[in-house]
Every structure is written in C-alpha cells, then in structure tokens.
Amino acid sequence: MASLIEPPNKVRPKGKHYYTMGQTLFEIDTKYVPIKPIGRGAYGVVCSSINRETNEKVAIKKIGNVFENRIDALRTLRELKLLRHIRHENVIALKDVMIPIHMTSFKDVYLVYELMDTDLHQIIKSSQPLSSDHCKYFIFQLLRGLKYLHSANILHRDLKPGNLLVNANCDLKICDFGLARTSRGHGQFMTEYVVTRWYRAPELLLCCDNYGTSIDVWSVGCIFAEILGRKPIFPGTECLNQLKLIISVLGSLHESDLQFIDNPKARKFIKSLPYTRGTHFSCLYPQADPLAIDLLQRMLVFDPTKRITVTEALQHPYIGGLI
C-alpha cells in the first residue's frame, strides 16, 4: 500500500506530496492519491491512484532517472509525442503528464493513464476459461485499435499480450508506444530489432531494411495463436531458432516466398534449412472455430507482401457481426 511521507529535504513544494510504495518514492501532484503498486517493469513502476478532482481511478507510471539512458529517454519522449495526438477507445489514453518542480534539473517523469484491470498476458496464463466469443472480441478490438494507428501511419512495433490492457468488461486497449514510430512508405531504412522476439515478423528476423504495417499483423497472428493455445506459438530462444520454429509450422518456402528478402545471406540461410511440410493450424488448435483458423493462417504468412492487412482482417467472416 501507499504511505504518505514527509519530503526528503523537509521542504514541501507547492502542489506536490510524497508517497512511498515498497522501495519507490513518488513525488506527485496533490490531486492524486496513490492506492497501491500494480506493476513494475524495465521502464518504471506503476501504481493505481485516484484523481481527487474528478474521482477517477488512474494509473501513474514513474520513470526514474529518465535521462540516465539515452534509449530509455527517447522511448519516453516517443510515447509522449504519439499519445498526445491519439484518441481511440482501443488505445490507452494518456491523461496527464506531471510538471516537475525544477524544469532544468528533474530526473523522474510521471505519466498518468486511464486505469485498466489486467493485461492479456495475465489472462492467457491464468486458469480462467476463454470462450470463442472472448477470443473473437479480443482480436476484433486489437485489429480495430491497430487500424486506427495504421491509418495515422503509426507502426506499434512491439505488440504482445503484455502490451494489451484489459478491464472487467473485456475492453481491450493497446499500450506501450515506446517503440512506435511513423511509417512513411517504402524506401525508408528502419531499425530491425524492435519487436519482442516471439512476436517478431520474419522480415525483422531477416534484417530487411524496409518493412511496414505488416509487421504488426504478424504480431497479431502470434497473439491470436497464443489465445487459442494458451501458450506462445513461436517461443524462440534466439533469432535463428525463431526462424526455424516459424518454418517448422508454416512449412518450407517456395522461391516466390523469398523475393522480399534483400539480404543474400539471409535468403541463403532460409534455403539451407531441411525440407518440412509444416503443421496445419487446425492440427495445432483442433478446438478452434474454422473461421478463426482461416484468419490466423492469413496473418501468419511468411512473405509480408502476401499477408492480410488490418482492414482486410476486419472484413473477414470470423469478425462478422462485431463491426
């Protein structure tokens, strides 16, 4: 639980108060009353809180020593710049950014988001049964939020169950935009290693210079499969193992499936792998709706140019009736 404490230097700045949660000090605006810590990750500590002015429950994320690491600072800035302009019911809302006391010497950043109950990773690994309707509703909302992002030329680049927040009504919201960026079409060089490995598209694993919105669609396919099977479909231990796992399911590739690979060594590696027929998704997920299997196999296509788009996925019969 949160404990109200005296300021560390005994000087109480106007409009601020201090709380500790575990070993973490929170210096926050007095309109927010922390309740308890709800998460801790590589990029900060999150606590639930109440906004006394609106009586709204929110989540406050403290990113400590934000300037200590240049990459972490850029992630935070990227998320702030994007979320300032994003408004969609399937994307997490940034409610507030607390202004530091000393604008020239502050070290910590406090971001205020709408509060959700859990994330899809926690749901998948729990013993809670998931019906076909649950699965369909989660995928529909994920695609809907992603269509909004892609229509604004934003690639998320780090979609995974832990970055999909869910509340008690099964409403789903995409979060964590620290790796997101704008897409300006073909011909633009982009960094390869962005998405968490298990959800990383083949074109990223193969170090292709150009990629687009299809990388997010691959991640959705991996998440879709994980909901159906309650475990990751491609839990690779490193990059090459990840590729081998993908091909063990999809089967060996034709020459026409490799045209997008612009790295000769990468193409040679794929061709060197032993022949495999692969495993049909209906065998991996025998209880799944046949329409779910059809959509899944259109998402998990090795060649990004042949992969279904988000707009097309939302028009798929599996999603029918939800739009």
From TrEMBL:
Tagged with keyword ATP-binding: yes
Cofactor(s) needed for function: Mg(2+)
Limits of the Protein kinase domain: 32-319
Keyword field contains Secreted: no
GO molecular function: ATP binding; MAP kinase activity
InterPro entries reported for this sequence: Kinase-like_dom_sf, MAP_kinase_CS, MAPK, Prot_kinase_dom, Protein_kinase_ATP_BS, Ser/Thr_kinase_AS
Designated name of the protein: Mitogen-activated protein kinase
